[in-house]
Design brief:
This protein is an alpha+beta fold. It is 50% helix and 14% strand. It is built from two helices and four strands; from the N terminus they run αβββαβ. It has a two-stranded antiparallel sheet. Strands 2-3 form a two-stranded antiparallel ribbon. The longest helix has 33 residues.
Amino acid sequence: MSLTKEQEAAAAKAKAAEEAKLLAEMEAEEAAKKASKKGKCFVVAGKSITSKIGIVHGDIELKAEHLAGGQKALDSLIKAKLVEKL
């Protein structure tokens, strides 16, 4: 049993609508994730920092109190582009 052209078109339209909905949800989730990181410091991708709390990388927030040198050390890491402030 094959579908008519109208049924195929309706199925394609429904699939496109579902894909658009999923894409919008993914974009909203990514925007919320970025907003929650605003004003915080994170180690850049592909790098890691040894700190008082252990090895910090990726999505782990790095604070001045985590570093032996405090704010001065954090500022140096930001200047060296090993840490980014979002």
